[in-house]
Amino acid sequence: MSQLTMPKGFLWGSASAAYQIEGAHNIDGKGVSNWDEFVKIPGKTFKETTGEVAVDHYHRFKEDIALMAEMGLKTYRFSIAWTRIFPNGTGEVNQSGVDFYEAVIDECLKYKIEPMVTLYHWDLPQALEEAYGGWESPQAIDAYVNYATYLFNAYKGKVKYWITINEQNIFTGFGWMTAMHPPGKFNDEKTYYQVNHHVFLAHAKAVLAFKEIMPEGKIGASFAYSPSYAIDSRPENGMAKLDHDNLKSFWWMDVYAYGRYPRTALRYLEKQGVAPTITEEDSKTLHVAAQKVDFMGVNYYQTATVEYNPLDGVTPFGEMNTTGKKGTGQVTGVPGVYKNPSNPYLETTDWDWVIDPSGLRFACKEITSRYDLPIIISENGLGAFDKKTTDNKIHDDYRIAYLAAHLKELIKASDEGCEILGYCTWSFTDLLSWLNGYQKRYGFIYVDRDEEGGTLDRYKKDSYYWYKEVIETNGASLSVE
Ligand code: BG6
């Protein structure tokens, strides 16, 4: 039997985000972002780490992209810092910022690497936060669409793939429910859903603007999707899984793909008094934009296990493991609906993230059945403690095993009929993990820096050479039959 591969032209890639790699936080006219401010609050990040320097990609992007080219990368997904383009969120454009990203794009194109641009990877201009509470106000929708439209016009002809919003479910959940991201609100559920509604509208209006400017371009959102399993066959757990999926996954993906909320989840939120206000015009906008979306972007890290959660059960506010001390994360859930216990059949990472390669195939098949959309896996990877040896080698065989297992499942999903356009590992270089400092490493390239600092020199890990071969053989080196 011959070995399976991904389809011809498949976008083998890797991803990053501006705040996590660039540094240069106050250089060349960049404005202040909500993250620049949030990290100053004691206790919010691991060992008070910030992105002020990050891994200095701003000054080293040519070196980093040359390493991508040598590896044979077909696409590089990166985000644009809104504050480099519009330092105050709207108003005057900062030309240096526009030039910086144009240089990054040109550097990719020079090596035939397809640039894939994320418009919003969580770093909101602080000016908008201060003016009207950022995403809490519908005014943020217009500001975002203005910013997005500016970039569509600036880079049209050079950038074909665009991601509107990165992990809307994560930044809103952490921002308005658990206070772990800016603006640091706790259990403000009503605002959380209203904010999400504003972000959906921003996404939708950007999609509509995009299709006017670049009808041939490709656009979608990237969703942090954790497919789920019921813990057993008890009917109450099956129902909990259904409710969990509607509230935790389909609430977002249905809006991107269908332009409407899942009806039973909406009814539940109405009963709780926390449903968003949705006008008829909003519904129309969401619906029309959904017809024009080109793909479902998926950031896949893990699956969830679901069990019924009694009314006096766990809350969404359990501790999250941000230290890498295995077993310190707590079970969370919604009282009266569901909880997410650990899965006895699966291993976890040092940060208690479930390792479930077949969950990636599950995610692709679920999306294909439910939405019939092409898929871009915009993130997948393993955060781990890596060690550099005295002769500057990094033997990350555990990362190779993790990625290989996931890619085998992806190839099977493709063989089973899912239309998968690309796959980006998280991440190309090591970078700042928002809440977990620099010690949680994801890259193919080791960056010599820790929470205190470092030389910022780059070193290829063993996984770098391994992925190079995967790309060269279009996946055949993974020996899936
Ligand atoms: C995703 C984000 O949530 O996962 C990335 O889009 C993030 O920005 C990545 O870094 C890994 O998460 P973490 O918390 O381990 O850095």
Automatic annotation (TrEMBL):
Spell out the family assignment given in the record's similarity comment: Belongs to the glycosyl hydrolase 1 family.
InterPro entries listed in its UniProt record: GH (IPR017853), GH_1_N_CS (IPR033132), Glyco_hydro_1 (IPR001360), Glyco_hydro_1_AS (IPR018120)
Indicate yes or no for the key word S-adenosyl-L-methionine: no
A GO molecular function annotation here is: hydrolase activity, acting on glycosyl bonds
What is this protein's record name?
Glycoside hydrolase family 1 protein
Matching SUPFAM superfamilies? (Trans)glycosidases
Q: Does the keyword Hydrolase apply?
A: yes
Q: Which residues form the active site?
A: 379
Give the matching Pfam families.
Glyco_hydro_1
Return the EC number.
Answer: 3.2.1.-
The broad enzyme category this protein falls into is hydrolase
Sorted keywords for this record are: Glycosidase, Hydrolase
